[in-house]
Amino acid sequence: EFKAVMLASLRSLVPKDWDSNHEVAWGWLWENVERMLKNLMGKPAVQEKALERLIMSLTDDAVNYLRREVYKRFFALAPAGQDYFKQSTTRLYWIADKIVEMTIEM
Question: SS3 for the chain, per residue?
C-alpha cells in the first residue's frame, strides 16, 4: 500500500519529468528497502541494548568527535545540505544528539 501511495506522490511532484525509468528506479529502491527491513525484523530489539551501552560509554571527547563526523560525512555525501544547515555549532550538535537519541529509541 505504501509503495503505491509513494509512487503516486512522486509522480505528482514531478509530472513533467516523471517517466517509466523513474518508475522502475523507485520500484527497485522500494523493493530493496522492503527486503532489508524484513531481514531486520526482530533484530533491533537485540541490538538496542548494545547500542545504548556503546553510546552511554562514550567520553565527552568521543561524543564531540561523533558530532563532528556526522556533519563531515553528511556534507561530503550531500554538499547541498550545507545550504540548509546554517545554524551555530551548538545547534548542530543538539541536532546530532537528537539523531543519536532517536536511533536508540527506534
Answer: CHHHHHHHHHHHHCCCCCCHHHHHHHHHHHHHHHHHHHHHCCHHHHHHHHHHHHHHHCCHHHHHHHHHHHHHHHHHHCHHHHHCCCCCHHHHHHHHHHHHHHHHHC
Would you state the pLDDT for residue 60?
92
The residue length of the chain stands at 106
- The radius of gyration computed from the CA coordinates of the chain, to the nearest angstrom, equals 18
* Claim: this prediction has a pTM higher than 0.70: no
Residue from 6, 10, 51, 53 nearest 31 by CA: 6
Model confidence at 65, in pLDDT bands (50, 70, 90)? Answer: very high
The span from the CA of 50 to the CA of 86, in Å, is: 33
